[in-house]
Amino acid sequence: MTENVSRSFSVYNKYSKSLRGLSMKSKKKQIAPLELISGDYYINEDGLMVFTTQYHKRRGYCCANECKHCPYKKIK
Predict the structure, then answer these.
(1) Looking at the domain assignment, is residue 50 inside a domain?
(2) In the prediction, which pLDDT does 9 show?
(3) Which residues, given as ranges, of the chain have pLDDT below 70?
(4) pTM for this prediction
């Protein structure tokens, strides 16, 4: 039993050493968030922030989260 434990531990050490230099960060280019201005959002009855069409147009692209006021909705 001790032999199995030491063998699996050495495999773990070998595997963890190979992962040390890797990063979990996305390879996507990071874009700074827009500064919010008046009319960019409202708070709904559930207390959630809802972005308006104005905000989405200023951002300039669809985030693919099916936003309520997205001007970039795909036509089915």
Answers:
(1) yes
(2) 46
(3) 1-28, 74-76
(4) 0.56
Give the number of other Cβ atoms within 10 Å of residue 51's Cβ.
Answer: 20
Rounded to whole angstroms, how far apart are CA atoms 11 and 70?
Answer: 50
**Could you give the CA distance from residue 69 to residue 29 in angstroms, rounded to a whole number?**
25
Report the phi/psi class of residue 65: left, alpha or beta, with left for phi > 0 and alpha for psi in -120 to 50: alpha
71 in a structural domain: yes
Number of folded domains in the chain? 1
Which tokens is 7 given?
């063998």
For the beta carbon of residue 62, count every other beta carbon within 10 angstroms.
14
The answer to whether residue 51 is domain-embedded is yes
Residue whose C-alpha is closest to residue 34's, from 58, 16, 57 = 58
